[in-house]
Design brief:
Chain lengths: 310, 282
């Protein structure tokens, strides 16, 4: 709790720097606009201004710097502009009862969240199954583990368009499944590594004790290895869900999707509406924060019930 | 059907061989540790080839590995141009700038307990965000050429390296720092002789995560506009023009680049952190 004050002040500084940066970033389009509406700008014409540094432009035309804070299509929007856009596409739409309209970020966030959760489910199960196989079979350990590491060094985005082409050819309708596969690909690895560590966490003496109780393999798995691995599992689940969200958004970005936060970014780029990109990015950030916090909460609750110190 | 049959026979045989090898008394030797995963990978390729051939899958959907290999060999020149554009110009430069900036920031932040407490949670949060989404913004700011790709890579690699370095700098314990004080070591001395070496395992963790991110960033940024070369450009146009074999060849390049950079990082790490418990007895 004692870090709340430093965190807030650092955040304030970041927002302040952002606010200040808007002026130099937007001064050129702002001057172009001022000139078109008949104002005197030094030097005249966008071509002549291209060779002048932004600082010089801001000094010479200090009256029009403010224009840069209210552009429709800014190169860098102000924090307030982003906030307003966010409110317009979320809260305001809920008030009007149109939360599920195609223009609402709640709708697009929900589409992204669905794929993320499916991918998370798929990736987590794959990771846990793989970890169990690796812990119990030496063959699996020798043959799977190196490939699991190699798979993470392959940039998945290179394969993302392929997965979508493949699944549409095979006859899978919609983009839900391919996006889920991509996010599962990104999220299984942390779970796998964490679970291998966790399942191997019990000491030999503990395993031996279970042997003296004549416990079967299944029993020692359920009563010792699995509970011992839970703290490791939750830590990697937090990494995994963030990775799953990245995977879904990457799956939506390059592939011409029409719904989902990644698609909003893509469409914002194609139609030249930076505010749409920025608000989609912030929604994705909020979503990531919520998901990680949720897992953190479940972790605290379940570890406390198990008698651990959470 | 015969191709599929051969593939399945090969699969079963390889599986048996792997089980035998990994349970044999040579299972700890280096040749076996390399042979088993290689056999596993080859089996996957053989299964892929056999399935695609026997089921008559159109090469437009999924080309067999042999065809990808032939395309790879035939278009080395194109692949090299794309490699230079995406990896050498975009990813490497971005990675170098981002890593250096993150490292310097981390050392500066570390001097103030206030900043460390404030920035660490924020950095952790940013490291978990889908930062690739800024790619269109960067292309808008820095133009189509490699500068915008490098910019995306800088932002993507910055936070993981920053967070790991800051955490690493706090890794040396009080006892060790007190010892440095009794030697009357200055801040710079303590940093160079004790805290940076102690931070190295953490820093390399961050660097290894960042290598993959750098490639992802450089490739995704090309989907939003690039000169008519580059791996991301070739993949997105290849999918559109149904030259899927070339796309798979690019994927193979990406896989090789990713794996070898990661391997290089791991190798440097072992040289630098030879003292760490996880590298002893090797």
């Amino acid at each position: 709790m004692r870090s709340i004050f430093p965190v807030i002040s650092v955040l304030l500084v970041i927002v302040g720097l952002w606010w200040v940066a808007v002026a130099p970033m937007n001064v050129r389009p702002a001057l172009d606009m001022a000139e078109r509406s008949g104002a005197e700008v030094i030097p005249e014409g966008p071509v002549a201004r291209r060779d002048v540094s932004v600082w010089r432009l801001m000094l010479d035309n200090s009256d029009y710097v403010a224009v840069g804070y209210a552009l429709d299509r800014p190169r860098l929007p102000t924090p307030t502009q982003v906030g307003q856009e966010l409110w317009k596409t979320t809260g305001a739409m809920v008030m009007k009862g149109r939360a599920w309209s195609k223009r609402s970020l709640i709708y697009h966030g929900w589409i992204t969240l669905q794929s993320t959760l499916w991918g998370f489910l798929l990736g987590t199960s794959l990771g846990i199954i793989g970890a169990v196989a690796i812990v119990y079979s030496r063959t699996a350990q020798l043959s799977l583990l190196p490939w699991a590491i190699i798979s993470q060094t392959i940039p998945i985005v290179a394969i993302a368009p392929m997965i979508i082409v493949l699944s549409s050819q095979v006859g899978v309708e919609g983009r839900g499944l391919p996006k889920a596969i991509i996010s599962a690909y990104l999220c299984y690895f942390p779970v796998l590594v964490g679970m291998v560590k966790g399942l191997k966490a019990p000491e030999t003496s503990q395993l031996d004790l279970l042997k003296t109780y004549d416990a079967t393999g299944v029993q020692s798995f359920l009563k010792l290895r699995l509970p011992a691995s839970l703290p490791f599992l939750f830590t990697s689940l937090k990494v995994g869900i963030a990775a799953a969200l990245v995977g879904t958004i990457v799956g939506e970005l390059p592939t011409g999707a029409i719904s989902g936060l990644g698609a909003r970014i893509l469409i914002g780029d194609q139609f030249g509406t930076p505010l749409a990109i920025w608000s989609a990015l912030f929604t994705a950030a909020v979503l990531a924060g919520l998901l990680v916090t949720l897992i953190d909460l479940i972790q605290r609750l379940s570890l406390r019930r198990m008698g651990g110190q959470a | 059907m015969s191709a599929l049959l051969i593939a399945i026979v090969f699969w079963v045989a390889a599986w048996g061989a792997n089980i035998w090898l990994s349970n044999s008394r040579w299972s700890e030797t280096i040749p076996v540790r390399i042979a088993v995963p290689v056999l596993f990978g080859v089996t996957l390729l053989v299964l892929w080839e056999g399935t695609v051939r026997s089921l008559g899958v159109s090469p437009v959907i999924l080309p067999p590995p042999s065809m990808v290999g032939a395309t790879f060999a035939a278009s080395l020149e194109v692949l090299w141009i794309d490699f230079v554009q995406t990896v050498v110009k975009g990813a490497f430069r971005g990675f170098a700038i981002g890593a250096a900036a993150a490292f310097i920031c981390a050392v500066l932040i570390d001097r103030s307990a206030f900043l460390t407490r404030g920035l660490l949670p924020i950095g952790n949060f940013f490291a978990a965000l889908p930062i690739v989404g800024i790619a269109p913004i960067m292309v808008n700011w820095f133009g189509f050429d490699w500068q915008s790709k490098a910019a995306v890579v800088v932002v993507m690699v910055f936070f993981p390296i920053l967070v790991n370095t800051v955490e690493g700098l706090r890794a040396s314990d009080t006892l060790q720092r007190d010892l440095m004080r009794t030697y009357a070591a200055s801040y710079g001395h303590t940093l160079l002789k004790l805290r940076l070496p102690a931070a190295m395992p953490f820093i390399f963790n961050g660097l290894k995560v960042a290598t993959t991110l750098a490639l992802i960033g450089a490739i995704v940024a090309e989907y939003f506009g690039s000169p008519t070369r580059g791996m991301g450009f070739r993949i997105s146009t290849g999918v559109g023009s149904l030259s899927i074999d070339l796309v798979w060849a690019e994927i193979a390049v990406a896989a090789m680049v990713g794996t070898s950079i990661f391997g290089l990082m791991a190798w440097i790490e072992r040289r630098v952190t030879f003292w760490h418990p996880s590298h002893r007895n090797r």
